[in-house]
Predict the structure.
Amino acid sequence: MPGEPRQPRTPPARVSSGLFSLTASVGSRQFITIAVLVFFVLGLAWWLVTKAGWVTPLFLPPPEKVLARLQELAVSGKLLDDMLISIYRISLGFLISTAFALPIGILIGSYRAWEAMIEPLVDFIRYMPVVAFVPLTILWTGTGDAQKFLIIFIGTFFQQVLLVMDNVKSVPRDFINLGRTLQMPESRILARIILPSAMPGIWDSMRISLGWAWTWLVVAELVAATSGLGYRITTAQRFFQTDTIFGYLLLLGVLGLATDQAMKWGSRKLFRYLRQSR
């Protein structure tokens, strides 16, 4: 209309583009390429630093020496033996911890009264350093596999319980009210509404706690063991075999990365509906 003041135009919002924008989608091939490139750059930097002699080989052995040492241990059979015993210990120890943590976490996440009874005690214990329990576990169970299972349990159980509790509490209240509107019994609401809604988060919590389990396993094997990856690192330390130490550290990283990616793959297969809804 003539005579009316013009309203200033709002400039259109800028939409950033490229791999590093907030809404950028990265395909599987691009993701793998970027990840491999990062590892390649780090390996190249390691090789250049050792080749230039900036660090004494005693403190940072060259990558070719580390790989040669790993090959030597693999040919002798020690590498496979250490790896298998550590995988056995972490698998069983983590399963024991998870078997106890899941039902307790679901219970205290669903019922306020149970939370009042259990959650403060769990909080109290989880702040105690796990390393301080190592000498006690040796006294209680000796230096066998039971001691390794117990350390993994202490290091992961209490964290898992609280993570699972939070996952259950994150289920929208409207979902539960819908079940009550349909006059579903509480046991059915728990089995058909709460658990399916919380399971993706619970699975991620298990994946995170599995990383902690690897850490506590190595701690247990460093202190009291006659086999395993941590034991081999301790033995190498006594003889200043830093190439063995670095090799086993790299192996632990590879094993941890493999288990993490396996858990992510399991999440994609088990919870496909989440990918479809995003």
